[in-house]
Amino acid sequence: MTSLRIVSVDEAGFCFGVRRALQLAREATERHAEVACLGPLIHNRQVVAELEERGMRVTDDIADVPPGSAALIRAHGAGPQVYEQARERSVQLIDATCPFVRRVQQAAAGYVAQDYQVLVLGERDHPEARAIVAHAGDQATIIESADELEGMTIGDRVAIVCQTTQRLANLEELVATLLPRVRELSVANTICDATSKRQHASVGVASQADLMIVIGGHHSANTNRLAQICREAGARTEHIETADELRREWLDGVHTVGITAGASTPPEAVEAVRARLLEMASGGER
Ligand code: F3S
Questions:
Q1: Could you give the maximum distance between any two Cα atoms of the chain, in Å?
Q2: Where does 100-191 sit in CATH, by number?
């Protein structure tokens, strides 16, 4: 096998917010002997292990961070009480809240200040959605879908903001259901397009590939979804976490291989897969 064509999806892997958070985390470990990360930074075992080696530990509660040391807010953001507690306890905060997430927090707070009934379209237990509500002074309600409107008391003036990873179809359904029931509806479409762009670009590559390699945690929801989308686009698809899982026989009869990666997959993992495929194609691998 010598003429293997490898096509990588440009938008694959880390989104802007995760890349930025990881860079801030690495810089923080260079400046501080110990840095506490408030919740796991990303769902990738290799990256978490690397950060631990650099002196970062994960904690769920800022109350556990020793006074005078450093703590990092991840891309999902955190509520205002975390900032307050950090001040009170003299904990130095490194704020890696994604700027797009910050925009949602500000939109929710702005709507509350204008006396709207605020709905946050998002996952009830997700830290990003919870932090948005906290920034709205707990005056906002998380709603997962339009179905939940039934039985809810809806006022005259309603505003919607969205957790950044929401699907547009979910927002459209909520707006369509709500509109006939209110006098005024204001919508901040705060959905981040990083996910849909990655999916769209992956479909483009999958439709021209004989084999699609999707890289990311086996338990990662967004990576599994990506693999499913590639299968639906007609490509034989293999979901792997690291290059070690690649099998030489997968390449039998294959001319074009596409590579894409979930949102928590570092560029080094993508590069390692690419290199291993080239090695296999040139016969350098069993
Ligand atoms: Fe990533 Fe920020 Fe969008 S963390 S998915 S770029 S909201």
A1: 68
A2: 3.40.1010.20
Q: Catalytic: 27?
A: no
- Domain 5-13+194-281: give its CATH code: 3.40.1010.20
Q: Ligand 1 centre and the CA of 266: distance in Å?
A: 15
pLDDT 10s digit of each residue in the chain, 286 long?
458 999 999 989 999 999 999 999 999 999 998 999 999 998 888 888 999 999 999 999 999 999 999 999 999 999 999 999 999 999 999 999 999 999 999 999 999 999 999 999 999 999 999 999 999 999 999 999 999 999 999 999 999 999 998 889 999 999 999 999 999 999 999 999 998 999 999 999 999 999 999 999 888 888 998 999 999 999 999 999 999 999 999 999 999 999 999 988 999 999 999 999 999 988 765 4
Phi first, then psi, for residue 119 (nearest 5°) are -110, 135
Choose the catalytic residue: 11, 128, 144, 241: 128
Q: Which overall architecture, per CATH, does domain 16-98 show?
A: 3-Layer(aba) Sandwich (3.40)
- Reading the block at residue 243, the tokens are 């290059």
Which residues, judged by CB distance below 6 Å to any ligand atom, belong to the binding site of ligand 1?
Answer: 15-18, 75, 98, 100-101, 164, 192, 194
- Record the tokens describing residue 166, joined without a space: 């929401």
Distance 282 CA to ligand 1 centre (A): 38
Where along the chain do the CATH 3.40.1010.20 domains lie?
5-13+194-281, 100-191
Beta-bridge partners for 189? none
